[in-house]
Amino acid sequence: MSMMKEFKEFAMKGNLIDMAVAFVMGAAFGKVVSGFIDGIVMPIVGKITSGVDFNSLKYILSEAKFDASGKIISAEASIKYGAFITIFIDFILVAFFMFLLIKAINKSKKTQAAVPVAPPPPTEEQILLREIRDLLKK
Q: With 0-12 CB in 10 A as exposed, 13-18 as middle and 19+ as buried, what is 75?
């Protein structure tokens, strides 16, 4: 079997295609949630916390040093914990929205599964075996 043929079979398997679609959808969903957080949630949180911008919160370990002309000699060293807080809130909200989405999908699957499915008709072998059984009973 040629390598191209093997690769084509691998790439066209249902699970791989489903996973690729899920990855693209997840990335797009992440952008939507990040936009929601940056545009709606964080301004509300900033308003509640008296206008504090979490992204600008940091603990400065050492100040930046400048020469006489204003050129940076050494950059500022700081721990940017505000960015971490923003990313953490982003993660919690993405996880929560994914939970709600999966919960809704599972609920819809349960309602679909609740509809009874008629059993398949007996096969020809089953019919013959039943006839034999009935003849042996007589």
A: exposed
